[in-house]
Amino acid sequence: MTDPIHIVGAGMAGSEAAWQIARAGLPVVLHEMRPALGTFAHRTGDCAEMVCSNSFRSDDDVMNAVGQLHWEMRAAEGLIMAMADRHKLPAGGALAVDRDAFSASVTAALRAEPLVTIQPGEITDLPREGRWIIATGPLTSPALGAAIQAETGADALAFFDAIAPIVHADTIDMGVAWRQSRYDKGETEDERTAYLNCPMTRDDYEAFIDALLAADKTEFHEGETAGYFDGCLPIEVMAERGRETLRHGPMKPVGLTNAHKPAEKPYAVVQLRRDNALGTLYNIVGFQTKMKYGAQTEVFRMIPGLQNASFARLGGIHRNTFLNSPTLIDDRLRLRARPNLRFAGQVTGVEGYVESAAMGLLAGRMAAAEALGRDLGPPLQTTAMGALVHHITGGAEAKTFQPMNVNFGLFPPVEGRGGRRGRKDRYPAYTERAKADFAAWLAG
Description:
alpha+beta; globular; NAD; NADP
């Protein structure tokens, strides 16, 4: 029996990496500091706990790069996608899950695997012996973060990741709100009615923006800067960029018809998405915030339909750290200066649950192959996983490196299909090629 491979962090990336290593027939030790040492955002010690949204975003593997990434993880028999599919909730074209049931099932699967040992306790330094995967995510502990910074010689980069509030469903006024997915998207009635919609008139919207801009916000500590990731901007930051920004973003009214007043077009709409299988909790879509708690309840109850809302969790904000991966990490996800260390997940500069899990999947497979005397390179850049690896390990400009979601802009153009091709033609060409190339990588 070979020495075990060690993983630090049992989030999306660490959990997936552990699963892939065990599937390769190798022992793995998964180190997790929670719950003994908690974080601002986590509530439990479970593996793969979802701390922000409960959505893995689009599940469309023909027209969407995120959906293609889902396809690749399913093809690679990933644990995260298997458990997400098991605990799926209606969400239109998105893959949303019952977050507590999801993380509990990931934890149970790993604990039931004989080759996986979950070892509690904090790792405070970077080991010099053995094979290790560092998958500590955006909330890496201060001690380990300092060790990484000392080893890399680079200043830790940071932005701030904000958490959206969750509302008790029975406190939403359904005489005002109605059920509908945008453009009635979905194959079943549950999918087509997956969201609750709260309409706003122009006066409602203007008053809401005024209150949002005037609300008390979380103060930053000395030396911190608010370098937000554009894919997860707090709503008040969006509002500061222009009064109409929210109406053309998370509050856009297009594709929705007020069931109570079908002849009246809402000026803006706030959407809520089911957060658990029981349908007792809903999160406010796109409403990440850094408002103080008291201000949140006042401002969010201005939304028609939420005037009597009770909140299961209010929004919050936390620091998110990541490496300047283009200068530090090779395409096997190894630290160039210390190749016994691999990094995976958000700490590498990918953004999103599924992107983090995908990097864990690759790191696990690469570490297992190396332990078995083989070298495993990444999939081609024409695949979703390959495009992400290429971006973080050299495709991005190091001086301006920022966290990135998977998107078709990271894929090389399809040969012979350039020019002014529309999305309906171009995107399927990307995903068709990606599926073929990823299947070939798996087979090889």
